Amino acid sequence: MKVTFCITELDPGGAERALQQIVLVLQREGVEVTVVALSGPGVVGEELLQAGIPVTYLHSCCGWDVRVLWKLRNYFRHECPDIVQTFLFHANIAGRIAARWAGVPIVNSGIRVAEKRSPWYLRLDRWTEHLVDQHICVSQSVLDYSVSVGGLSRGKCTVIPNGVDFDRFANAAPISKSELGISEESNCLLFVGRLDPQKRPGLILEALRQEFLSPNVHAVFVGEGPLKEKLEGECKTLSLSDRVHFLGRREDVPQLMKMADVLVLTSLWEGMPNVVLEAMASGLPVVATEAEGIQELLAPPARGFLIENDSPEAVAKGIQKVLKEPHIFQPAAETAQNHTAEHLTWDSAAERYLRLYRDQIDSEANPLDSSVSGALGKVDS
C-alpha cells in the first residue's frame, strides 16, 4: 500500500504534528508513505525527512496559486499512490482536484476544525466533494458541523480522533516554578497555543483581573502569534506583568504541564485540540470553553471543567473551582489520563486510518463484493 499525504504547509501546528505522528506510525506498520506540501520547507517537514519519509515542497506563492494544480498532478502521476490523504483546507481542495486529474483511485480529505469560514469556502468544498471518497473528521462535533453548515454528505464522513504521545507527557518530570520566576507556593495556569483571535488568550488576562481570583495565580503562555505584542502591552496597562509570563515556543511542554496546576483553553472554535489531549495524558486538570471536540474529550464522565459562557468572570470561576477543589478535579484528571492511554494514542489513531485504507483498497479491488456486502448489511440492520 502506498499513501501520499498532501498538506498546505509543514510549519509546527496541530494538523502538521498530527500528520507527522500518523505518517511515522504507518511507516512503522509497513505502509509506503510520502508527503507533499503546497508551501516551502517547514520544521515538521525537515523532521520527517530526518525520519526517512520522502517530503516534497511545491513552493506555492499564495493560498490560491493555480499553478500548484499542475505541480500536484505531475507529482501524483510520478508517485502513483493508492491513496491520497489531504490535510487543511487549501490542500483539501487542490489535492482532490489534482489527484483525480492524475488518476489516483482513492482520495480522502481531513477536516481538522469546525471553522466559521466564508460562504465562498463552504461552496468550494461542496462543489468539489464529488471528488472525495471519505472525509475524515477529528471529532463528532466537527462531522456534525461539516454536514449541517458545510453541506457535506454525512455518508462520506467518518470520525477518527487525534492522538497523543502518551508516554512523553505521562512520564515527564516537572520543571520548578522558580525557573520561571514564580514562587513554588503560587498556583500556575498554563496556555499552550497560537496567540491569535481564534484562541482568545486575552480572555485569560481579563480573568486574572477578577477580584475573587487570588493574586497568587500566575499565567504562563507558551506559543507565538499576532496578538503577542498586544497582550504584553495589556499586561503592563493592567498591572499584570508580574503574574503573566510569555515563554514563546518551547520544546519542554510536557515538563511545563507537569509543573502547572491547570490548563486553560478559551478557543472560539476547535476540532479536537492536541493541547487538551496532551494535558489529559499529563494528568493536568483542564478548564476550557465548549468549542468543538473539547466537550467530547472532557465530559461525560467529568474529565475537566467546561466554561458555561465566554465571559472573563466565567473563566475565572472555572479556574478558581479547579484550584479550590483538588479532591474533585485531580481524580477527574486521572480518569482523563487513563482514558487517553486506552483510546487516544497515536498508535490507536493510525490503526484507524490503516483499517479505513485497507477497507477502501479492498472495495476498490472488489467493487461487486463491496456492493453485495453493503446490501446485505442494510438487510441485516
UniProtKB/TrEMBL annotation:
<dbReference type="InterPro" id="IPR028098">
    <property type="entry name" value="Glyco_trans_4-like_N"/>
</dbReference>
<protein>
    <submittedName>
        <fullName>GalNAc-alpha-(1-&gt;4)-GalNAc-alpha-(1-&gt;3)-diNAcBac-PP-undecaprenol alpha-1,4-N-acetyl-D-galactosaminyltransferase</fullName>
        <ecNumber>2.4.1.292</ecNumber>
    </submittedName>
</protein>
<dbReference type="GO" id="GO:0016757">
    <property type="term" value="F:glycosyltransferase activity"/>
</dbReference>
<feature type="domain" description="Glycosyl transferase family 1">
    <location>
        <begin position="177"/>
        <end position="326"/>
    </location>
</feature>
<dbReference type="Pfam" id="PF13439">
    <property type="entry name" value="Glyco_transf_4"/>
</dbReference>
<dbReference type="Pfam" id="PF00534">
    <property type="entry name" value="Glycos_transf_1"/>
</dbReference>
<feature type="domain" description="Glycosyltransferase subfamily 4-like N-terminal">
    <location>
        <begin position="12"/>
        <end position="168"/>
    </location>
</feature>
<dbReference type="InterPro" id="IPR001296">
    <property type="entry name" value="Glyco_trans_1"/>
</dbReference>
<keyword id="KW-0328">Glycosyltransferase</keyword>
<keyword id="KW-0808">Transferase</keyword>
